[in-house]
Amino acid sequence: MNPVKVGICGLGTVGGGTFNVLQRNAQEIARRAGREIEVAQIAARSINPLCQTGSTLITDDVFEVVNNPDIDIVVELIGGYTLARDLVLKAIENGKHVVTANKALIAVHGNEIFTKAEEKGVIVAFEASVAGGIPVIKTIREGLSGNRINWVAGIINGTGNFILTEMREKGRAFADVLKEAQALGYAEADPTFDIEGIDAAHKLTILASIAFGIPLQFEKAYTEGITKLTSEDVLYADALGYRIKHLGVAKRTPQGIELRVHPTLIPAERLLANVNGVMNAVMVNGDAVGSTLYYGAGAGMEATASAVVADIVDVVRVMTSDPENRVPHLAFQPSSLSDVAVLPIDQCETAYYLRIQAEDSPGVLAQVATILSEREINIESIMQKELEHMDGKIPMILLTHKVSEAKMNDAITALEALEGVEGKVVRIRVEQLN
Ligand SMILES: NC(=O)C1=CN([C@@H]2O[C@H](COP(=O)(O)OP(=O)(O)OC[C@H]3O[C@@H](n4cnc5c(N)ncnc54)[C@H](O)[C@@H]3O)[C@@H](O)[C@H]2O)C=CC1
Ligand SMILES: N[C@@H](CC=O)C(=O)O
Ligand code: NA
C-alpha cells in the first residue's frame, strides 16, 4: 500500500519534534498504523535547529500544503487564531484530515471547525492541545465514556508550573524563569498567555466540553494568572500545609458548570500539589471510576510530538472508516451536546485563603470575625505568624469554609473598609481535591 502523505505546517518546537519522531520511529509507527507515513511537504518560515528535515520539500506558504492534492493529513503547528483557522478550514474544505496542537484555535473556533469537519466527513484531532504529551483527551473521550464526569482539575500550563516551582524551590525571580521557559520552547509565542492563565483557560475550555458534552465556550471561562502571586503567600501556604498551584477547574454543580482558572491552595500531601517543573497533571472524577490522575510533560519538543504523532496514527487507522462510526470530536454526538449553563465566577463556590494586613489588636480580629459571620462565612483557621524578613508586620491569615464568590467579594469590600485594615486583602481560592 502507498504511504499516507502528511503535510506539516510549522516546524518550530512542536513541528520539529513531530518531524523527528516520525523519522526516528518510522518502523514502529508503520507497524502500529498499518501504513507507512511519509512527510511529503512542510511549510514553515523558520526551522527549529534540532530538526533534521533532509530533502523534504519546504515552502513558506502554508496554503501550498493545504492545496496539495497529494496530501492526506495536514498537521497545523504554526499556532495563533487567524492563519491557523484559515488553513484548517481550507484543509477541511479540501477533504483533508487535520491534526493540530493549537488549543487557542480549538477553544475559540472549535465549534465552527468541528461542524465543518463533520459536514465533510473528516477528522480534526487535537490531543497535543491539552497537557502536551499526556493523552488526556483520548482518556476522557474514550477511556471514561461510561462515566458521568463530576469534575476535572489540572495543572495544565507547563510554563506557569515551571515558574512557580523554580521560584518556590530555588528562590529565583519570575522574569528570569520565564526567560528560561521561553528558551526551552515551553512558552507560547506571546508568553502572557501562559502567565495570565489564558493558555490554561483554552485547555480547560476543551476539557470541559469533552467531559460534560457542552459546546466550547472559552469566553465564559474565568481566568486569573500567576503574576500577582507573592513569595509571602507561597510561604504562608507552606506553613498552613498547602502548596499554591495554578489550576484549571471544571466542575458540575446543580446550578451549572464552574469553569475557572486561578492560583489555588492544595493540601501539600495531594499528588497534584507535588507536580513540579514543566510537568502537568489532570485529575478527572467520574461517578463510576472515582478520582483518576494523569501525569506527564505538558510542553516541550518531543513530549508534545508524542501526542501529535499518536493523533496521526489514529487518523491513519480510521480514515477509511464510516465517519458516523468515529469517536465524536467533542466526545458526545454533535446533536447531543447540552446547553447547561456555564456559571459566572460570582456564582462559583470555593473555600478561601485570605491575607489581611491588620493592626495587631483584638478589636480588629473581632471586627473581621463579625464581617465574615454576618455573611455566613465560616472560618476554618486563623494564623498570625511572623515569617523571616517580615519586619514585624504580621498579617492575619484566614482559611474559610466554602462560600460563593459573590459573598466573599462583599466580605472583602467590608474588610478593606475597616480602619484597622491596611491596603488590599489578598484572596486565593482553596481546593481539597478529594
Ligand atoms: N511549545 C510547546 O511545548 C507546545 C506548543 N503547543 C502548540 O503548538 C503550536 C506550535 O507551537 P510551537 O512549536 O511552540 O511554536 P514555534 O514558534 O516554535 O513554531 C512555529 C512554527 O510555525 C511557523 N510559522 C509561524 N507563522 C507562519 C506563517 N505565517 N507561515 C509559515 N510558517 C509559519 C514558524 O516558522 C515555526 O516553524 C502552538 O499552537 C502552540 O500553542 C502545544 C503544546 C505544547
Ligand atoms: N505554553 C504551553 C505549551 C503547551 O501547551 C505550556 O507552557 O503549557
Ligand atoms: Na494531550
TrEMBL record:
Domain ACT: 353-430
Pathway where this protein functions: Amino-acid biosynthesis; L-threonine biosynthesis; L-threonine from L-aspartate: step 3/5; Amino-acid biosynthesis; L-methionine biosynthesis via de novo pathway; L-homoserine from L-aspartate: step 3/3
Cofactor names: a metal cation
Active-site residue list: K203 (proton donor)
Binding-site list for NADP(+): C9, G10, L11, G12, T13, V14, G15, G16
Source organism superkingdom: Bacteria
Protein family according to the UniProt entry: Belongs to the homoserine dehydrogenase family.
InterPro entries hit by this protein: ACT-like_dom_sf, ACT_dom, Asp/hSer_DH_NAD-bd, HDH, HDH_cat, HDH_CS, NAD(P)-bd_dom_sf
GO biological process: methionine biosynthetic process; threonine biosynthetic process
Gene3D superfamilies: 3.30.70.260, Dihydrodipicolinate Reductase, domain 2, NAD(P)-binding Rossmann-like Domain
Alphabetized UniProt keyword annotations: Amino-acid biosynthesis, Metal-binding, Methionine biosynthesis, NAD, NADP, Oxidoreductase, Threonine biosynthesis
EC number: 1.1.1.3
Binding residue positions for NADPH: K103
Keyword Amino-acid biosynthesis attached: yes
GO MF, one example: NADP binding
Keyword Hydrolase: no
Pfam families, per database record: ACT, Homoserine_dh, NAD_binding_3
SUPFAM superfamilies: ACT-like, Glyceraldehyde-3-phosphate dehydrogenase-like, C-terminal domain, NAD(P)-binding Rossmann-fold domains
Top-tier EC class: oxidoreductase
Protein name: Homoserine dehydrogenase
